Structure formats: C-alpha cells, structure tokens
Amino acid sequence: MDRMKELAREILAEAKAKGAEYAQCSVSEGEKKEFNVDGGRFSLMRSLFNRNVTITLLKDQKKGTVAINKFDIETVKNAVSDAIAAAESGQPDEAWEYAKEPVEKEYTDGAPECDTDKLFMRTKELLESIKEKHPTILMEQMITEHNSGTEVFMNTNGVNYVTNYGAYTFSLMYSAHEGEKSTSFYGSDITLKTLDKPVLECGKIDWEISMVEKQLDPISLEGKFNGPVILAPMALYEIVLGTIMGNFVGDACMIDGTSIWKDKLGEQVADPRFNMSSEPYNDDVVVPNRHTAEGYETENFDLIKDGKLNSFCLSQYAANKTGNKRAGNGGRNMHVAAGEKTLEEIISGIDKGLLVMRFSGGQPAASGEFSGVAKNSFLIENGKITAAISETMISGNVPDMLVNIRDISKDIANDGNNSLPFIAFDGITISGK
Amino acid sequence: MLQDILTDKKALFADGAHTELRGQNNRTRRAVLLNGALMGNVRSDVSGVSARVYEGGVYGFSSMAEYTGEAAEMVLKAATENAAFMNKHAGIGKPALPKMALKQMPTQEDIKDAEQKLYVDFAREADAYITKKYPNLVSRTIVAMEDSMEKLIVTSDGASGHILAPRSYMYVVLTAQTDAGTPVELFQAFGGSGVFGDNFADPTKLHVEIDDLYEKLMQKREGVYADAGEKTVILDGMMSGMLSHEAVGHTVEADLVLGGSVAGPCLNKRVASDLVTLTDFAHTAFGEKCPLPVYIDDEGTEATDSPLIVNGILTGYMNSRESAQHFGMTPQGNARAWLFQDEPLIRMRNTSIHPGKDKLEDMIASVDDGYYLIQSNNGQADTTGEFMFGVTMGYEIKNGKLGKALLDTTISGVAFEMLKTVDMVSDKVVWVSSGMCGKKQPMPVGMGGPALRCKVKIGGR
User: Fold this and answer.
1) Four-residue CA torsion sign, A375, A381, A387, A390
2) Which chain A residues touch B389 with a CB distance below 8 Å?
3) Contact assignment for A362 to B388 by CB distance below 8 Å
4) Chain B contacts of A260, Cβ < 8 Å?
5) Alpha helices by DSSP H, A156-285
6) Mean pLDDT for the stretch of residues A395-416
C-alpha cells in the first residue's frame, strides 16, 4: 500500500508540474476469486489480479480524465500528459468543484481476506441443497465470488482516503423445468460479509426459488383491466427506484432540465407512508462507499421523507449547475422504509391484481411512463394467489403510482446492498392476450 | 500495438490440456456534451494477459493487469492450478477437446490513435449546429466515442492471431416538451466499424441526419399512446435486428440451451414461417463486410457463419469448442471475451434475418389497423423465448397509411410463436452496431434485418 500511496503522490505532483490547478487520483489494486456453475454443473474457477489508476484534473477550470491499469511510472506520467491534453481540448466550466477540506482516513470494510476453500464449499453446498430441496430448478448460471482490494484516493487539497474492502457475492440465475415445461429465468443475488451459514438461509433466495417453482403452469390473461399490482423488491427497484434516480433526481436529468421534479423540492410527491433513502451506513450494507467521486466523505441521506421530496441526488458539479445542494452520496444502497402489513395481508386485500416478481420493460420515459412484461408473476383473485401468469404486460406512470400506494409490507428484503419492501400500487394497466 | 511476447510461451503449455493465452488492450475515447457542458472527457486504456486451461471437463482461468512475459508465465501457472483444483473437486472426466489444426491468422492493420481534441471538437460542432438551428429544444446530449479491442491469441491447438477491432459512433439525444410540459426524447447513433477519424471526417455530413432526427422528435412531440393489446405491426430493420439478436439469438446460444432454453427441444423443428431465414454472420453478409467483422474467436476457432433458422426450421446453435463437442456440432468462432480479464463466452457476432422480396411501402399499405415500429432503445429476452423491446419511435398505421407518431412504448411476444406470424419480409436489410450485448460481460455486436410484418403485443393505455 505504501507503493500505491507513493504513486498517488507522484501523480498529483506530476499533474501540478504540468500545469493542473487541481488533480485527484484513485490508485487501486484488487483480487477476485470466482467459481462458475453453468447448466447445473461446475464449469470454471477464475482468479484475477487487477490494478486501476484514474486521474482527473483541472487546468484553467477545464477537466480531463484518463484511466489506465498500469503502475509503472512512465505509463502513469504519460497518462497525466494525456489528461492535461484532454483538459486543454475542452472548455472551462466554473461548476467543477472538488473536496477542499484536508482529511486523512483509512477504512477496512467487509471481508478483505478470501477463504477460497470455504467459498467453494458453500457454493457446492448451495448447488446441492437447491437440487435436493427444489428438484425442478435448473441452475442456468451461478457465479460465486470474493472481491477484495485496496484503493488509495488522493487529491491536491489534502484529501487522502485508504479503503481496504472485501465481500462474497452469490449471483444465481435459474428456472424451473418439468418435462418440456419451463418457467422464465429469475435472478437472485446476495452480498455477504461471512460464510458462517448456508447461503440458502440468507436473504430471500429460498423464498424466491420456491416462487419460481410455482410458475410451471402459467395461464394467459385475457383482455385488459386496471388493477392493483404488488411489486416485489426487485421489480420495485427496476420500475420505481430506477425511474426516480434516473429520470427525476439524478445529475443528468437535473442539469438538462428534463426532470419533472426539478421544482418540487419540499413538496409532496408520494404517499406520506413512502420513505426512500440512500444509506451506505445502514447495518445491512456489507461494503459502504466511503467517499464520492469528487472526494467528499459519504453520509446517509433521505431522498423522500414522509412522501415529500427531501433531496435530489446530485454531485457537487450538478449542484453548482442547478443551484441545489450536493447529496450525501452518489445514490447507492437504497433503503425504503417498511410498512405495517405482511405480504399475505396485502394479498388478502386485493380482489383482482398481480404480484410482479420481475419486470422486463423499456426504459421509462422522462415523464415516468413505462410499460413492459410482468415476468415470474402471479394473478391474485379474491385475496389469494390463484395462478402464475405468462405473456402479461403492465403499464403505468411512476409519479402517479407514488401517490397511489395501497400498502407497504413490513417484510424487507436485504441483499447486502439494498433493503426494500413489497409495495402495492393501484391503477396499473394490465393487459393479456 | 501489442508486441508478440506470447508465442514463445507455448513451450510452457501443459501436455494434454487445452490452453489459451491472450494478450489484450481495450481502448476507449469519449467526449460527452450535455446542453453544451463537457460532462465527460475521458480516455481509457486497459490491458493485460490471461490464460485459460481445460482439464477433465472444467476450466481454470487467471489474468493479470500486466502485459509482460513474466505476467504471462504467472497466469499460465495460476490457470493451470485452478483447472487442477476444479478437476479434483468438480471434474467430470470429460476427454480433451477435439483437436483443431494449427493455423496463423494474418495480422490486421494497426489502429491509429487520435488526440482527445478530435472527439471534443466534433461533439461541439454538432452541438453548435443543433443549438443554432433548434433553439426550442429542452436538452441535447452529444457523445463522440471510439472503443477498440486488440487481441493477441495463442492456443495449444487451433488458430492463433492478432486482431484489431475499432468502432466509433456519435450519439445524439434530443429532448423537446409537449404543450402540457411533458418531456419527449429521441436518440440516434451514427457510425460503425473503424476509427473515429475515418467515420467522421466532415462534421457537416451529420447535419442531414440531425435534421431528420429533429423532425421525428417533433412528430413524437405530437404523438399518441399506443392502444395496448395484440396488433399487426411492421417491425423496421432495427427492430427485426433486435428480434434476431434478443429473442432468437440468445435462446440458441449453446450455453443457454444447456441452461434449459426453449431452443433445446426445438432443434430441426419449425419455429418460424418459411419466409424466415436467420444467420449469425462472422464477417461477410449478403456480399458485404459485416458491421463488426470477426475472423477468429478467443478459443482459436476460425470464424465462419452460423446458420440458425433456415426457411423457418431451427437448424443449429452457436457454440464454444466445448459445447460443440457436447452437441456434436462444429464450432464456428462464437467464443469471445470483452476484456483481458474475461473468459470467452458464447456470443453473437452479426445476427440478421435474411431479406425477402416485399417492398416496405407495400407492407405498410397492407395493414388496416396496426403500427410501424422503427426504433428501440433496449431489449431483453427470456430463455423461454419471451421477449420485450422498448419502442422509442413508431407510427400508427390506419387503412394502409401512416398516422400519428407514437410515444414511448414496449412490445413483447414469444419468439418462436411470433415468428410464425411473419407473412411479409422486405427486400432491404438495416444494420446497427452501436450498442453492447450484456451477458456476464458486455460485447459489441452487430444486428440487422429487413422489415417484417407480424403480430406482437404492444404496451400502452
């Protein structure tokens, strides 16, 4: 690590010597150990040794960025020259601003050391226990890995972070099969700090697999109706949270003025029960992001509090461009507060609607209008799940949905990065054949 | 250009095991202007060496972020150890891969690098043109970019070669507002295979394309929601390319077939109307160079075309050397990796339905009540063949004539059912190549097709 710190200092000195008024760099070294299962059997073991250097600098308030993966001084000096040349080719922009307060901190997060034998053992155990407990499930692909490394981040204002990190990640893609019948594929992911217990007992993996098993005999819905839809955590993220972050509160949509929430700070944009925050320091997060890309220390922040828009999710650059405040972090590690009912209680209150497990749709329009296919999903009739469905589309409008929340579950799914409930929304267009 | 420091490492390859050694450099150049502000001004060079070893039916792989002889020896050793670990704990005793003849593929021309100023200036010129001519837009995003893969491949058997594959594009995104204040957006990518300077020598040549994009955006601004339900549609070339890639192509990748895709039980059966013939082309299609030609894959297989559907019958899969052995098929060069640190996966190259005999105008005239769908921004498909594409530009068809433009919508269907409804195929193929296919790793791919008349479900109100 001393070598990485020394390299970072040399980069900053070189940038200054070549005329940059500001420079920052991220120097990182990482390792990955990975096992792959394909078509239900082990296929590959992979071990990677990586390095990355990203240099960003300002010259005459013009910005240039270069990324390389070499540590030798000649390559690094050439990269600084390239970054200077890139900046010189640009235009000055007063909005570029970076962390100014000197800080020196070192963190160690997650599980920096890999227990490779145990990772293999837990992978094998997971594969075997799924085969035994869920015999119709075919594991199309399973990737289990341990990622670890060290990042040195420095800037010319005296900001200096060293982050040592590591985590185990299990990503499963599977479907159920019986004779020639098969279901849509479904993906379960979880990030873990330890391998103390069987992975099938972690998060909602076992429940998700059991739901996919129930989808072997789907029915086709006839016609079109307007009804309530319960979005499971993954679908909630894809449809609602993704649209909020990408279309309403993020850098690009705020800078280009296309956000329909750009003037709604402090206003009611959702049901008062809806609370959405970005929380890298939530206990459920295995590896928090310690600093932003601009060098600021991260902190939790509320995006929507009691249904009111509390903050945008802006970098310092976008904040300067739009006259708003910088957010506490870059918008990872989403947390939506729990409600008061169990999933079963929410289902029991629905006469006719859907439980949508996964969504495959087009990118929502700037207005929040979306449409797509309800995948791995179920029909709810008279308060009960009555059948799996296929070839069913749903469409709606995210801002309208947020004020038409029917129920929020008290069950929360934690995957090591996000913690999200099930939410039922009224007024979704559901169309079958 | 990567110097060949790998060939003399063949002496270190383990006897009896299939071994691949690959040096690689990925280069990216990008300038992003958002409403005139240079938000992105980035150059990236990522290179290193990797090795993969096949033993007992399982692979070991390793990579390092160095391109040196020492690093090559280290990854060879680590990959061999990983293969041994896997063989010991999870090996299935499979024999070695069938031998291929050693062959040296010719080295391609070097890729010229350009200064960042080229990308920034080009983007600024396009932005200045748009700002001056169309001041009423809410926003505009211009991206000038180039990415390239350079690979040096050495294998224990099969072909070896030195590949250079650059591509470059201008992306233009324009946003207007409806009278009600709702933003409406439209996007177009221009460019293709080759370095930026070759594809974009003269900024003024883009002006006509930008004018056309603006005109479509103004039509979309007055657009209507599609009527949800099953409809007769004309899918234009880009949409049928998306269909070829997403809805059919992925289901016939042999690794997904082994994972339970719908194509497994459909081999040699009818999956489409007899008007549909679909091929994953290696480097040449319909007498011309493909948008992203592939001459050799990362397992050392010389690339040839993969016929997938012939006159409506599913005739084959896309394979790696291992899956080809499993299915008793011939590998055709589909195993490709994105970065030096990535292992080869079964990927498409240039996937297209073959052209038919119909004229597009006759196809539109034949539809009483339906849609003409032109452009998509994303697509996904399931291993069941159920697909979804976002539609960003299209028109109503009423009584054989184009009507109002459509607001963003989505279409869906089940590929091997929907393809049986294809009853007209146009005589012109449209290719696109500006996106990335996502499958564990990203990968540049070409996809194309003629216009198709068929039935799909469309989302809307």
Assistant:
1) negative
2) 362
3) yes
4) 181-183
5) 205-213, 233-236, 242-243, 251-255
6) 96
How far CA A262 is from CA of A84, A266, B263, in Å, comes to: 34, 11, 47
Tokens encoding A74: 């000649």
Min distance B115 CA to chain A CA atoms (Å)? 8
> Shortest Cα distance from B256 to chain A (angstroms)?
7
Cβ within 8 Å of residue B302, ≥6 positions away: B103, B105, B159, B295, B296, B333
B83–A95 C-beta distance less than 8 A: no
Given a cut of 70, whether residue B461 has pLDDT beyond it is no
- In the sheet that holds B278-281, the strands lie side by side as B313-314, B306-310, B278-281, B350-353, B446-449, B430-432
Q: Do A89 and B41 touch (CB under 8 A)?
A: yes
- Condensed to tens digits (0 to 9), the pLDDT of residues A128-155 reads 999 999 999 999 999 999 999 999 999 9
CB contact under 8 A, B383 and A140: yes
Cα–Cα distances (Å) from B256 to A38, A374, B178, in that order, read 9, 22, 43
For residues A379-394, give the mean pLDDT: 95
User: pTM for this structure?
Assistant: 0.94
**What is the C-alpha to C-alpha distance for residues B2 and B24, in angstroms, rounded to an integer?**
8
User: At A310, is the secondary structure helix, strand, or coil?
Assistant: coil
Mutation site for A-interface testing, chosen from B116, B184, B239, B414 by largest number of A Cβ within 10 Å: B116
* H or E element at residue B64: strand B58-64
Q: Is the ipTM of this complex over 0.95?
A: no
Cα-Cα-Cα-Cα dihedral sign, residues A123, A128, A132, A136? positive
CB contact under 8 A, B42 and A67: yes
Q: Are A390 and B457 a contacting pair at CB < 8 A? A: no
With a CB cutoff of 8 Å and minimum separation 6, the contacts of A264 are A309
